[in-house]
């Protein structure tokens, strides 16, 4: 029997990174060739989703559009950004059309709809919801084509620059279920919406993470316990939009200290690393919960969506380097590993993929395999490991910005706001481990308009909780300084922290002979016993600390048995369970296909699976260029921001609180 790990190692060999490869070119070139291809995402980097995930992957396009609007730093940009946040733009586009004649037969949900788009091409979608006899309003979800051009072809909703090429024409005929034709009319700019919004990732948190069956989900509970509100992420984001003080139980910050220049960073990252981060974890939790319930297809779909939300549409097809693109965890992890010397399989390099992403994607693949083989316990362990790994880049980012501010002569609020945001993103986890350490982290990094940050205190508070968070010092690394080719003197990795002094010193000692002999020499020598003993003491203490971390704790987070017996949230609201909107019927529908998957290894299925997909997939031969070129502008800017700014010309931001009341 093949091991799951063997399977996942082979997947990249089988599929490569090519999204435009053989798999799609051999698709039937028959009469349907003018149809836009359906939105099957064939691979998310090395991961092969078994269900449709284009809409989940498109959340990053909303974040990206919000970032662009916020970057205008004016009220119009702010209003536009809020519209995208509230109404969506790229994820799950839906048309609501009116039929000229009332229906004579009812139409059920999920029927294939074919129509003509604004640009004259044929487009495909599905009905949402059942429509009864005599009714005239039909809702159609478009197949979201993000694979070719990186954006949706019908993006209206809250989009300040609507893209309508791929929207249904104002009037015409649609074919439903391949036989019946219906005449319809609607208004393109008024009746195209988005059924997924960034807002709802947080505002639906209670029903989806707290009071569902198998809830409350453990990670979410820590955040709820700390902030005291289910929709803490949305509240924080809304306060940031308005530049006002937060009103939660803990972690409150006065965002009035920041001008739009600082809030721009805070808002876009709050969406990514408070809201989407938690929802990604939620999808993993839901996948395992569905596995426990025996709903394996559903489980795999949630798992697939978690991978999509971790990666984002802009990260899906990238090679080894996602650090210069994207707004989600994939990007965050690859960026931080360069700064902390934690790239590569052994977490000790500054190039290539991050250790975190390599590990996470191994667990994504292994977890999917487990779900497909009804191994819920194993999938639960994959999930726990992914969650653990997903905290590492946030800890790194917190350290990074704390360090930047601590060394700033003049406070740059852009760095301050990011330090605040990243601190918020992990404070609940730190608090769950150690309230005193969380208090230190909070005091140092809460919003303020000074560079008065004690980096050592931040570092110590975080390091105190690594063992509780089940994080190794080597996974966090240290802040690397290219100019000296070593870690910054005050930002060594923990455990190795003394190496630059005592560690190397001791190595030298031991290389020269027994410690005893050397000790004699030292005590009588020029260096002086006190220095040596102090160094030895520090080194021993660090080392013990490290060993303790490596020994203990690992089992606790991977043991989920108690967790799954605890179903406390179920029935709390009278059995209330909001059916998540993210659930679409997985495309892998036929029981035959499931049977294949269940009885074969993942690798064995790959080719078969693709051939099956190809037969129902439409190749778009006349790929239309839909314009919108928004890829490059903000990324290079961000990279500059990430530079260590000791010598940077300082930005004199507007820190006056009064300047920050926005009309919203
Ligand atoms: C649909 O409308 C027709 C004409 O008004 C009516 O006779 C019929 O009962 C209606 N059917 C339903 C199911 O409402
Ligand atoms: C839609 O179908 C009707 C009747 O089947 C036809 O008269 C009409 O021209 C069609 N409209 C378009 C835009 O093709
Ligand atoms: C569609 O809606 C827009 C916005 O409300 C409006 O300006 C436009 O006139 C409408 N177009 C049609 C054809 O009704
Ligand atoms: C990844 O991209 C960034 C930004 O373009 C660059 O600085 C870095 O060197 C790249 N890393 C690798 C391994 O190519």
Secondary structure layout:
Layout: H1 4-15, H2 22-25, H3 54-57, H4 59-70, H5 75-87, E1 93-99, E2 112-116, E3 122-127, E4 137-142, E5 171-176, E6 180-185, E7 192-194, H6 198-203, H7 205-210, H8 218-227, H9 232-242, H10 260-292, H11 296-311, H12 329-340, H13 355-372, H14 376-406, H15 413-433, H16 435-445, H17 455-469, H18 473-476, E8 480-481, E9 486-487, H19 502-512, H20 515-523, H21 529-551, H22 554-558, H23 561-565, H24 591-599, H25 602-616, H26 633-642
Antiparallel strand pairs: 1-4, 1-6, 1-7, 2-3, 2-5, 3-4, 5-6, 8-9
Helix pairs in contact: 1-13, 4-5, 4-10, 8-15, 9-10, 10-11, 10-14, 10-15, 11-13, 12-14, 13-14, 14-15, 14-17, 15-16, 16-17
The chain binds 2-acetamido-2-deoxy-beta-D-glucopyranose (NAG) (4 copies).
One 2-acetamido-2-deoxy-beta-D-glucopyranose binds next to loops.
Keywords: Membrane, Signal, Transmembrane, Transmembrane helix
Region (Disordered): 550-664
Biased composition (Basic and acidic residues): 569-587
Could you explain the architecture of this structure?
With about 675 residues, the protein is of the alpha+beta class. Helices cover about 50% and strands about 5% of the residues. It folds into 3 domains: about 1-35 and about 90-195, no CATH class; about 200-495, no CATH class; about 500-550. It has 26 helices and 9 strands. β8 (about 480) and β9 form a beta hairpin. The N and C termini lie far apart (about 60 Å). It binds 2-acetamido-2-deoxy-beta-D-glucopyranose (NAG) (4 copies). One 2-acetamido-2-deoxy-beta-D-glucopyranose binds near residues 172, 173 and 183. One 2-acetamido-2-deoxy-beta-D-glucopyranose (NAG) binds near residues 187, 189 and 190. It holds the Pfam family Fea1. Keywords: Membrane, Signal, Transmembrane, Transmembrane helix.
């Amino acid at each position: 029997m093949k091991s799951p790990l063997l399977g996942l190692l082979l997947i990249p060999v089988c599929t490569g990174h090519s999204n435009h490869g053989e798999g799609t070119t051999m698709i039937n070139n028959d009469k349907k060739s003018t149809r836009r291809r359906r939105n099957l995402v064939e691979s998310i980097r090395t991961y092969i989703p078994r269900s449709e995930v284009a809409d989940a992957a498109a959340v990053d396009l909303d974040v990206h559009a919000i970032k662009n609007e916020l970057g205008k730093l004016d009220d119009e940009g702010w209003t536009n950004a809020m519209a995208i946040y509230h109404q969506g733009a790229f994820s799950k586009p839906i048309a609501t059309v009116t039929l000229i004649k009332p229906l004579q037969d009812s139409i059920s949900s999920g029927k294939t709809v074919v129509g003509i788009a604004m640009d004259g091409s044929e487009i495909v979608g599905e009905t949402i919801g059942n429509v009864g006899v005599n009714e005239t309003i039909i809702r159609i979800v478009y197949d979201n084509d993000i694979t070719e051009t990186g954006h949706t072809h019908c993006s209206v909703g809250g989009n300040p620059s609507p893209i309508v090429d791929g929207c249904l024409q104002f009037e015409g005929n649609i074919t439903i279920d391949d036989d019946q034709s219906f005449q319809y009319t609607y208004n393109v700019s008024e009746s195209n919406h988005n059924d997924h919004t960034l807002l709802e990732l947080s505002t639906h948190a209670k029903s989806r993470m707290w009071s569902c069956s198998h809830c409350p989900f453990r990670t979410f509970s820590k955040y709820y316990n700390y902030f005291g509100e289910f929709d803490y992420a949305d509240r924080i984001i809304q306060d940031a939009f308005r530049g006002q003080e937060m009103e939660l139980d803990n972690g409150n910050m006065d965002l009035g200290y920041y001008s739009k220049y600082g809030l721009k960073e805070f808002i876009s990252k709050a969406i990514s690393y408070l809201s989407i981060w938690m929802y990604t974890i939620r999808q993993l939790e839901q996948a395992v919960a569905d596995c426990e319930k025996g709903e394996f297809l559903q489980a795999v779909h949630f798992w697939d969506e978690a991978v999509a939300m971790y990666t984002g549409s802009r990260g899906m097809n990238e090679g080894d380097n996602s650090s210069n693109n994207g707004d989600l965890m994939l990007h965050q992890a690859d960026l931080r590993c360069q700064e902390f010397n934690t790239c590569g399989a052994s977490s000790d390099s500054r190039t290539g993929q991050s250790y975190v992403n390599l590990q996470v994607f191994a667990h994504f693949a292994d977890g999917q395999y487990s779900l497909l083989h009804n191994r819920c316990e194993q999938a639960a362990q994959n999930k726990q490991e992914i969650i653990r790994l997903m905290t590492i880049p946030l800890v790194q980012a917190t350290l990074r910005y704390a360090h930047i501010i601590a060394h700033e002569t003049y406070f740059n609020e852009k760095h301050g706001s990011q330090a605040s945001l990243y601190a918020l993103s992990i404070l609940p986890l730190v608090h769950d481990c150690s309230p005193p350490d969380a208090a230190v982290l909070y005091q140092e990094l809460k919003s303020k308009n000074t560079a008065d940050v004690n980096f050592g205190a931040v570092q110590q508070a975080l390091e105190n909780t690594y063992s509780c968070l089940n994080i190794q010092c080597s996974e966090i690394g240290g802040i690397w300084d290219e100019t000296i080719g070593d870690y910054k003197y005050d930002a060594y990795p923990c455990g190795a922290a003394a190496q630059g002094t005592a560690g190397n010193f001791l190595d030298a000692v031991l290389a020269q002979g027994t410690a005893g002999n050397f000790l004699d020499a030292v005590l009588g020598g020029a260096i002086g016993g006190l220095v040596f003993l102090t160094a030895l003491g520090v080194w021993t203490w660090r080392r013990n600390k490290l060993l303790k971390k490596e020994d203990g704790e690992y089992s606790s987070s991977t043991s989920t048995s108690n967790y799954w017996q605890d179903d406390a949230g179920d029935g709390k609201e009278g059995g209330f369970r909001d059916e998540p909107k993210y659930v679409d019927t997985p495309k892998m529908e036929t029981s035959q296909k499931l049977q294949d998957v269940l009885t074969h290894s993942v690798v064995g299925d790959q080719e078969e699976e693709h051939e099956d997909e190809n037969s129902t997939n439409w190749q778009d031969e006349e790929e239309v260029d839909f314009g919108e070129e928004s890829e490059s502008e903000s990324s290079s800017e961000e990279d500059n921001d990430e530079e260590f700014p000791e010598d940077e010309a300082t930005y004199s931001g507007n820190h006056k609180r009064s300047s920050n009341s926005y009309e919203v």
